[in-house]
């Protein structure tokens, strides 16, 4: 089993601590948090071994799980990579694209693997939809959240929208052609509401909306492609597929038939793929262990995390245009 440690024991870090301690793929060694009082309280309550320095923790482990604020991702990841330790980094990968690209180069040089925590890739509703999505040409995404002070130190694009950016980039097999965006600050120093229109070279258009001051929570994406529509509800864990096919000559009495102006008839079919229950955070952590053990590519590579960050930064830059 791979020996693993955790950096950061905040809200999300405590979830990672618990899951890694229970995982059958890892041997959990301990954690480090810069707030010593907080760290000792966690050690006392849960029994997780606390290390006073990152260096001491790195000496004992094969994999580090970085769940610190984004501003610390770059420096702690460099420290781990140079120690020959594989790195799992929560999203976004780093604060800047330049930092992310340096991590990629260092990881290759020191022959260590890295994965970025874009957890929605492991959402069971998204997984159920993957083989149903085929060359979408229009994508509509809404990620709305009730206000929470946690995460407001960065624009909503890096806090929330980046989840959908990564999911869309994993599906659309084309380079980004242009981006238009707008953002509004309501309660934070950075935008709390944002909308972006991403146009890809293959003609696909993605319209993304994110808000962290909504009255209700919503995490839903819709993929429109030729003769089909796929809806993914990341929050409710539901996937719906609506397909249109040429109507049979003698349709069923209950069949839903549409006829266009030219007289062409199409029948609508509804499908609700089975969505298997899982723990997405545990899955992303354990698939990283598998990638290390089998020397294969992680599901969300450092390069993919960097591409998501690049698009996010382009969106933020477009706010000023």
Automatic annotation (TrEMBL):
Q: Which domain of life is it from?
A: Bacteria
Which residue range or ranges hold the Gfo/Idh/MocA-like oxidoreductase N-terminal domain?
2-118
Which spans of this chain does the record mark as coiled coil?
none
- Which PANTHER family does the UniProt entry name for this protein? BILIVERDIN REDUCTASE A (PTHR43377)
- According to the entry, every stretch annotated as the GFO/IDH/MocA-like oxidoreductase domain falls at 156-216
Tell me which species this is from.
Psychroflexus longus
Spell out the protein name for this chain: Gfo/Idh/MocA family oxidoreductase
């Amino acid at each position: 089993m791979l020996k693993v440690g955790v950096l950061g024991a905040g809200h999300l870090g405590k979830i990672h601590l618990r899951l890694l301690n229970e995982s059958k793929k890892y041997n959990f060694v301990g954690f480090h948090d810069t707030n010593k009082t907080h760290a000792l309280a966690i050690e006392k309550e849960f029994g997780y071994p606390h290390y006073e320095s990152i260096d001491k923790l790195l000496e004992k482990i094969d994999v580090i799980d970085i769940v610190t604020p984004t501003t610390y991702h770059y420096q702690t990841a460099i420290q781990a990579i140079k120690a020959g330790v594989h790195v799992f980094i929560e999203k976004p990968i780093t604060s800047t694209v330049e930092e992310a690209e340096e991590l990629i180069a260092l990881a290759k040089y020191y022959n260590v693997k890295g994965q970025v925590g874009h957890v929605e890739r492991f959402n069971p509703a998204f997984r159920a939809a993957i083989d149903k999505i085929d060359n979408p040409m229009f994508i509509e995404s809404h990620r709305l959240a009730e206000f929470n002070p946690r995460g407001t130190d960065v624009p909503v694009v890096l806090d929330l929208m980046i989840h959908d950016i990564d999911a869309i980039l994993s599906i659309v097999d084309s380079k980004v052609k242009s981006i238009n965006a707008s953002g509004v600050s309501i309660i934070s120093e950075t935008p709390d509401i944002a909308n972006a229109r991403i146009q890809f070279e293959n003609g696909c258009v993605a319209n993304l909306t994110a808000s962290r001051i909504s009255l209700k929570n919503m995490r839903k994406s819709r993929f429109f492609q030729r003769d089909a529509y796929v809806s993914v509800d990341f929050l409710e864990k539901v996937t719906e597929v609506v397909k249109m096919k040429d109507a049979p000559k003698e349709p069923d009495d209950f069949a839903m038939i549409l006829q266009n102006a030219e007289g062409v008839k199409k029948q609508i079919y509804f499908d609700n793929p089975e969505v298997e229950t899982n723990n997405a955070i545990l899955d992303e952590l354990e698939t990283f262990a598998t990638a290390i053990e089998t020397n294969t590519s992680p599901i969300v590579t450092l390069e993919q995390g960097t591409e998501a960050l690049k698009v996010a930064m382009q969106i933020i830059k477009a706010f000023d245009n």
